[in-house]
Design a protein that fits this description.
With 297 residues, the chain is α+β, with helices and mostly antiparallel strands. It has a domain of 186 residues: paralog of FGE (formylglycine-generating enzyme) (Alpha-Beta Complex). 17% of the residues lie in helices and 16% in strands. Strands 1-2-5-12 form a four-stranded antiparallel sheet. The protein has a four-stranded mixed sheet with strand order 10-9-8-11. The two termini are 29 Å apart.
Amino acid sequence: MTRVFALLLAVGLAVAAHLPAAADGLMLVQAGAFWMGRDDGAPEDGPMHRVYVRDFWIDRHKVTNAEFAEFLNARGLASADGERRYDEDDADARVFQRAVGAPAQGSGAGRSGDETAPTRPIDEPALAVRWRAAAGFERHPAVEVSWFGARDYCAWRGRRLPTEAEWEKAARGDDKRRYPWGKADPAASLAVFGREYNATERGDARPDGTSAHRVEDLLGNLREWTSTALRAYPYRTDDGREPFTGAGRVVVRGASHDDPAGSLHVSTRRSYDRRGAAAGHHHVGFRCATSEDLGGY
């Protein structure tokens, strides 16, 4: 009996050693080299080359509207250096300021100013105002968040934005795959793509589209901010591209819900200039990463 138990324990440990570690919604991507870029895409996407990445942890899912609302309540709409974190007055926004106790704004709402305040007696104290996600979109990935808002949210959580190399390794794994899930063509069960404008969905509803590192919703739903300034390949961390500080262009990775299937590829690079980075967009979201040792994994 003791031998059987020992054998089962050994098998269990061997299997566990090959599974990605997880902690608090973060997935561990272990250190190692991988193939980054491609030779059959746009000039800025290549050439394919080997890049070594140290251990890092990355959010399994994109940051949601509800999570970003918590941040706005804690830190406010503008950063200490005056950067706007979120385009709350955009028609595509899904996080609004509301009086506590007021009815939740529905999915058909547009701008935050469209909401009518509830009637109350003149001598009654004003209700506290808080940021809240629109009803039905709480668990959808956050839209209209500027690069500065994404940067500050991650710092608030004790994390940072991923580099574009980290993002691609989390999505691609070690086998040069085109899609996070492997070789299969894009399908509705794998990713959110080819949809109408602003037609996002929850990012945790397609486990079949998970990457080899068990990170979800990497290709589709929303593109994602990174910490990387756009520079030509080969990728290096010591040539001034890390981190983006507001000068030049910042790299955006992934794909959006309204991108066509033919444009989906883990190596596709897009970018925004300083003005674009300071604004929110209907097709750009983000997730956070960290290089800190979370312990026990």
